[in-house]
Design brief:
By secondary structure, the protein is mainly alpha-helical. The protein has one domain. The strands form 3 sheets. The protein has a two-stranded antiparallel sheet. Strands 3-4 form a two-stranded antiparallel ribbon. A two-stranded antiparallel sheet has the order 5-6. The longest helix has 36 residues.
Length: 380
């Protein structure tokens, strides 16, 4: 094969990051818009405006979530098995919340009853806010380490509970996620809504979210730098060796999550984007430049998610109760052949997904106004 095992593992680690960032950049603003829905829309017509800014694209945006789960299953089976079983209750919570979204979109306008529509609006809020929070909490748990261990036959034992997932640092990560996606949703509404009270409220909430993203992300970075979080590999590792988590000598080491930035200073671009993104969005709000707001929120998503991956490499899922069971890029991947075949398939279909997505957004892009919502029978 033209690509060695080490290169394929790094490529698939990077592709997993691309899929997560793609999900945050597309479906992320859907979650942000849903989280803002009850607050920026004061009546039925205003809330219908908000809903229809994402009405044409929200279903397609979920493709990135499905692709991400599929990539973890195929490329990192150990990670999939432990995370999806250990975080089962959290995953169920996310899926239950996400199920409310299509039902809410399809059913809220079936009756004229204001109470009926209000209940579905709050269901849409839950479908946006809960996944945004839990996704962030999950990232926080990855950084602190998950409470699992492997025995000598590679059987996994998860020793945590749903409540144990919500540690102080994990909650901070959850708040970063919510603020980040609310800012992204506000940036989308600024671009998609015609001037009016709904857009004005969205921009105001976006200002608060931008400040919250900057402050909370900075606090999280300081926590990683000066707290007791971090894992490190001792000794040498064969990047081309077979996948076996039991052959890696791992220890907990405070501050180790920042070691990669000392070794590769170019990576500092990512946390810099995470801090600069909300400031760019805030500047765009002050200057009335909608594209700058959305670009800033997108930069924040890219920088924050990218910095997590850059900080943890080569770790994917460390263990807080048995560091020797920690999963890394080198010890938890599928076989060389599997990664290579998957890369060939991805090289064909991922560009098609990107091209179709870009075309769909171009065709369906345009501002949503009260008159159009009130008289267009195709709108939600």
């Amino acid at each position: 094969m033209p690509l060695d095992y080490e290169t394929l593992r790094v490529i698939w680690w990077a592709l997993m990051g691309v899929l997560l960032i793609g999900f945050a950049l597309t479906d992320g603003f859907d979650l942000g818009v849903a989280s803002l829905l009850p607050f920026v829309g004061r009546n039925d017509l205003e809330r219908r405006q908000v809903i229809n800014t994402v009405g044409a694209t929200w279903e397609g945006n979920q493709v990135w979530f499905i692709l991400g789960g599929g990539a973890i299953f195929a490329a990192w089976p150990f990670v999939y098995a432990i995370s999806f079983s250990g975080f089962y209750l959290a995953m169920f919570l996310v899926l239950a919340a996400l199920i409310l979204r299509p039902v809410g979109f399809k059913y809220r306008s079936k009756k004229e009853d204001p109470a009926w529509r209000s209940r579905w609006d709050w269901a849409l809020f839950v479908g946006g806010f809960v996944p945004a929070l839990v996704f962030g909490v999950a990232v926080g748990n990855v950084l602190t380490g998950a409470p699992f261990r492997l025995d000598d036959t590679l059987r996994a034992f998860y020793e945590g509970s749903l409540l144990s997932l919500f540690s102080p640092f994990a909650l901070l990560a959850g708040l970063v996620s919510v603020a980040m996606l609310v800012l992204h949703g506000a940036g989308w509404l600024a671009m998609k809504l015609e001037p009016g009270p709904v857009r004005t409220r969205a921009i105001r909430y976006g200002s608060f979210a931008a400040v919250a993203v900057f402050v909370l992300y900075a606090v999280g970075g300081a926590w990683l730098a000066y707290g007791d979080l971090g894992f490190a590999i001792q000794g040498t590792v064969d990047p081309n060796g077979p996948s076996n988590p039991l052959h890696t000598d791992t220890v907990e080491q405070a501050g180790a999550w920042l070691d990669n930035y000392a070794s590769y200073p170019l990576l500092l671009i990512l946390p810099a984007l995470g801090l600069a993104g909300p400031l760019i969005a805030l500047l765009g709000i002050r200057r009335g430049k909608d594209a700058m707001v959305f670009a800033g929120s997108s930069a924040a998503n890219l920088g924050i998610i990218g910095s997590v991956g850059a900080s943890m490499f080569p770790f994917i899922l460390p263990s807080s109760i048995d560091p020797q069971s920690s999963l890394t890029v080198w010890n938890a991947s599928s076989s060389h052949l599997t990664l290579f075949i998957m890369l060939l398939v991805t090289a064909v279909f991922l560009p098609l997904v990107l091209i179709y997505t870009a075309w769909a957004y171009r065709v369906m892009f345009g501002r949503v106004g009260e008159d159009e919502v009130a008289h267009n029978p195709d709108f939600y």
